[in-house]
């Protein structure tokens, strides 16, 4: 079924839009031992039954298929194929289709999704476009250093081209230069020589390649470099492109960190639909020496017809110093992303830590606890560690979000004795925390986000009014982007008065401290907490 040596050129994408899977397969060809883990039945089976191992929702799954493959009216394979009369590419594609429900479920995705399905290893997404992560400019030199380090470590790499609503370039500009917008490419090689930074990419379509600088017929090639990087037998679907052009036309680099001899632990849990601390996924970790860790947080994959209309939850991994009876100081966190899984890499020094996993865009759906969406936290570590599920206290939501906003949010001194914290960067939404340090006066706060679009609030409204008691903090607003890939806007106006101001009395009449009222389901997040 497999003809060695494996060649990247064997893999050809068909009429199915699964470039994310084909590009990931092309990267695995460079490390055949990883591909052999996927292919359990390695020889031709007379009965036509083949077994594969694929990774989904944090677990390896055994998938058995037959060898009947979709063909057109002329008997040619309709979807992917492998040259030299090999079957393994088409069979892996069929196994992935069975795992996710059907061939149509494989339409659209990023290379990081394919690398995860084929390896089960921690994956990271390096953002190349500053507009994707807010106003913060990217550090080009740092990203290049990251890529060189990861390439040297033999990590698997892919790239996703830009385009669409978030791109400054239209689709026609991509096609004109020989690229496909919103498409997945394999990243096969990286070359660095003085100021020259080049990457070798591959289009799984096996045609339609880069026409700009450093393309096959570019005049920028010297005889020495062409001999070194462009052998006569180079595959036509592979091409070299400068790092500057990658930053211009691509929006992310996908990294799959395949390592050996690391330790792994799994913690199953749920994503509560309101401030139900009893069902929150929290894990305590004991570190005795510097240790590198990889966190992977999963939700159920929705690559099937039945669930295709559902939106993914927003996932975030947060790490705090452990403290007795409450969440300690914030340590670090992943970006909050609306996708099937998020990953995060860190190095922790000696101490005790608690890892808390959040999702918010499904709140107020009023599901029973047994119906909460399932979560899985996978922790890989370079050293063997002691870990256990942590008991969550009633204020864990409020304490965690407040500490996160104070550490990562923008700080604004509203008046003497009052500070507002706004968390937006890497958050896919907004958190507003009010801190009242006055010893004997309450502060009345009106937060108006009603002009925001494509966001949902944990309080079910984009307008709130709250009375923050003396020496207390409160999460007054938490907004989340509803769907990934769709533009959203955050517009917020904060006005504040000392207690008793007549302007607020119509919104907060006597006896009412919060509008909308904070019921028992939301008190664990939005109730004021003592300083």
Description:
- With 531 residues, the chain is an alpha+beta fold.
- The strands form 7 sheets. It has a 6-stranded antiparallel beta sheet, with helices on both faces.
- Helix 1 (19-28) packs across helix 4 (111-119).
- The protein is elongated, with a radius of gyration of 26 Å.
Task: Write a brief caption for the model.
With 531 residues, the chain is of the alpha+beta class. The chain has 11 helices and 30 strands.
Structural class: alpha+beta
Oligomer: single chain
Outline the biggest β-sheet. Answer: 6 strands, antiparallel
Percentage beta strand: 25-35%
What's the overall geometry? elongated
Please give the number of β-strands. 30
**Strand arrangement across the biggest beta sheet:** 5-10-6-7-8-9
**Cα-atom radius of gyration:** 26 Å
State the low-pLDDT regions, or none.
Answer: none
Measured between the Cα atoms of the first and last residue, the distance is 66 Å
Which percent bin holds the helix content?
10-25%
Mean pLDDT metric: 89
User: What's the total helix number?
Assistant: 11
């Amino acid at each position: 079924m497999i003809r060695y040596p494996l060649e990247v050129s064997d893999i050809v994408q068909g009429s199915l839009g699964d470039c994310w899977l084909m590009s990931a397969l092309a990267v695995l060809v460079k490390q055949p031992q990883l591909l052999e883990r996927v292919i359990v039945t390695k020889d031709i089976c007379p009965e036509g039954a083949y077994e594969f191992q694929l990774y989904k929702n944090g677990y390896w799954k055994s998938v058995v298929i037959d060898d009947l493959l979709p063909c057109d009216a002329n008997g040619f394979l309709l979807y992917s194929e492998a040259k030299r009369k090999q079957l393994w590419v088409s069979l892996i594609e069929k196994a992935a289709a069975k795992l996710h429900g059907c061939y149509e479920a494989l339409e659209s995705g990023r290379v990081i999704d394919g690398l995860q399905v084929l390896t089960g290893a921690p994956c990271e997404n390096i953002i190349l476009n500053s507009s994707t992560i807010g106003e913060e400019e990217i550090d080009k030199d740092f990203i290049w250093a990251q890529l060189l380090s990861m390439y040297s470590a033999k990590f698997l790499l892919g790239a996703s081209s830009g385009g669409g609503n978030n791109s400054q370039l239209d689709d026609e500009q991509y096609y004109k230069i020989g690229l496909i917008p919103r498409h997945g490419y394999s990243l096969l090689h990286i070359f660095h020589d003085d100021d020259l930074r080049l990457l070798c990419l591959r289009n799984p379509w096996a045609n339609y390649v880069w026409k700009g600088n450093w393309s096959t017929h570019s005049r920028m090639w010297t005889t020495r470099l062409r001999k070194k990087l462009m052998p006569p037998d180079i595959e036509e679907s592979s091409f070299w492109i400068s790092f500057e052009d990658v930053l211009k036309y691509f929006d992310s680099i996908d990294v799959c960190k395949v390592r050996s001899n690391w330790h792994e632990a799994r913690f199953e849990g749920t994503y509560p639909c309101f401030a139900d601390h009893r069902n929150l996924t929290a894990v305590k970790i004991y570190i005795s020496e510097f240790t590198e860790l990889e966190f992977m947080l999963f939700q159920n994959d929705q690559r099937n017809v039945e669930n295709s209309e559902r939106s993914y939850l927003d996932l975030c991994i947060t790490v705090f110093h452990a403290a007795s009876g409450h969440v300690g100081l914030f340590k670090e966190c992943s970006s909050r992303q609306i996708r099937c899984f998020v990953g995060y890499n860190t190095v922790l020094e000696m101490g005790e830590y608690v890892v808390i996993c959040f999702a918010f865009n499904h709140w107020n759906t009023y599901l029973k606890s047994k119906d909460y969406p399932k979560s899985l936290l996978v922790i890989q570590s370079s050293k063997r560690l002691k870990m256990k599920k942590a008991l969550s206290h009633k204020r864990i939501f409020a304490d965690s979000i407040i500490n996160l906003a104070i550490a990562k949010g923008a700080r604004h001194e509203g008046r003497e004795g009052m500070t507002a914290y706004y968390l937006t960067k890497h958050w896919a939404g907004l958190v507003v925390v009010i801190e009242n340090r006055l010893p004997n006066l309450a502060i009345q706060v009106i937060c108006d986000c009603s002009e925001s679009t494509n966001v949902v609030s944990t309080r079910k409204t984009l307008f709130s009014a709250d009375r923050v008691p003396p020496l207390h903090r409160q999460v007054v607003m938490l907004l989340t982007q509803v769907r990934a890939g769709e533009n959203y806007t955050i517009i917020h106006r904060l006005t504040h008065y000392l207690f008793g101001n007549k302007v607020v009395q119509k919104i907060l009449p006597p006896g009412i401290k919060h509008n909308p009222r904070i019921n028992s389901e939301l008190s664990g997040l939005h109730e004021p907490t003592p300083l």
